[in-house]
TrEMBL record:
Pfam families (UniProt xref): CCG
Keywords tagged on the record: 4Fe-4S, Iron, Iron-sulfur, Metal-binding, Repeat
Provenance organism: Hellea balneolensis
Domain Cysteine-rich, chain residue ranges per copy: 213-296
Keyword Metal-binding: yes
GO molecular function: 4 iron, 4 sulfur cluster binding; metal ion binding; oxidoreductase activity
Protein name listed in UniProt: Glycerol-3-phosphate dehydrogenase
Length: 349
């Protein structure tokens, strides 16, 4: 007999168009890091992916996996050396595109497949066993690095500029950063600095009365402050009263290296400063999509028993998501102009 819906809502089923179910990360349990269990699960999931191959055009994890299988002795996963699995794990960007848009076997399907979080689990086990190495541990300290670079931003930008034949080969050798990689620029004035002179609020806008905290994110605060200024201008034009708040990085760089415990610490730090604003009636806006992903999706799975984390997740929206919401609910203010030269759309994870 079919079970009645819970709380009056129909439960998602296999093949439905509803958002997939996602399980909390059991990262505080020792079995989460068990290498034999992880290897067995990698083998199970890789074999399913091999039979499906819908992820062929996503991140490099899938082409690497499929090439390894196709070039193996039998053309099946059973003849791929398990020591090669790490290449697939390393290539995953944790963008969640496969889980959210491609994979037909995510929960509630009985295959119960969550490729990105399996890659994260494998990285977490590796991190617990070996750490991430000195250079990588320094690179992920976004707030420390941003604060150190701020007073010497021109010098930092010169040293990290692609094509610098003096510094980039040295950076490649010591930190493992490819000399051809384009690196973010630093600024002597962060977004928080520039936000001290906010634009005039349009009290005639249809959305006037809304209040929002802009969570600056490390990338916008230290590397792309002009993005934050643009967001302030658009929100002010639409009558949204704003406050810029940046307690700390969301922890995405730590997540990518498998340091889940540090992500939890970052979540606690950011939560403590943003929650009082929610209680005052403010929405939370994230200016970087991956940071919004952390607040809305990853933190509640890392700290599933924390009601404040769930409250923060429910109040958080990406900047584009928030503007679309205004357009649908109240309507945008008159007088918005086109951007010169057009724009490039990146479909965010």
């Amino acid at each position: 007999m079919a079970q009645p819906p819970r709380n009056g809502r129909k439960e998602p089923s296999e093949g439905s168009l509803a958002a997939p179910t996602r399980h909390a990360l059991n990262w505080q349990d020792e079995s989460f890091y068990d290498e034999a269990l992880i290897e067995a699960e990698l083998e199970r999931v890789f074999d399913i992916c091999h039979g499906c191959r819908r992820g062929f055009n996503l991140c490099e994890s899938f082409p690497i996996l499929f090439d390894m299988i196709d070039e193996s002795e039998t053309g099946e996963l059973d003849s791929v050396d398990k020591s090669e699995y790490g290449k697939v794990v390393e290539a995953c960007t944790l963008c969640d595109m496969c889980f959210m848009t491609k994979c037909p076997y995510v929960p509630p399907h009985p295959f119960d497949l969550d490729f990105p979080h399996l890659m994260l689990r494998a990285r977490a086990a590796e991190y617990k066993k070996k750490g991430a190495g000195f250079a990588h541990e320094q690179l992920v300290k976004m707030d420390r690095n941003g604060k150190m670079a701020k007073p010497v931003a021109p010098l930092a930008n010169w040293a990290t500029k692609r094509g610098n034949k003096l510094t980039r080969p040295l950076l490649e050798k010591t930190a493992g950063i490819d000399r051809e990689a384009e690196l973010p620029k630093f600024h002597t004035k962060t977004f928080e600095d520039l936000a001290k002179n906010p634009p005039q609020l349009n009290t005639e806008a249809p959305a006037h009365g809304r209040k929002a905290v802009i969570y600056a994110t490390c990338y916008v605060d230290y590397n792309k402050p002009e993005t934050g200024v643009a967001a302030l201008n658009v929100l002010a034009k639409n009558g949204v009263e704003t406050e810029v708040v940046y307690p700390a990085c969301c922890g995405m760089p730590y997540l990518e290296e498998g340091n889940i415990a540090q992500v939890a610490k970052q979540a606690e730090k950011v939560k403590a400063e943003l929650l009082p604003w929610i209680d005052k009636g403010y929405d939370i806006i994230a200016l970087t999509a991956s940071c919004g992903l952390m607040l809305k999706m990853e933190w509640p799975l890392i700290l599933p028993d924390d009601p404040d984390i769930k409250k923060l997740a429910a109040a958080t929206k990406d900047i584009s998501e928030y503007i679309v919401e205004i357009a649908k609910a109240e309507g945008l203010a008159e007088g918005l102009g086109p951007i010169e030269g057009g724009i490039t759309v990146h479909s965010a994870c």
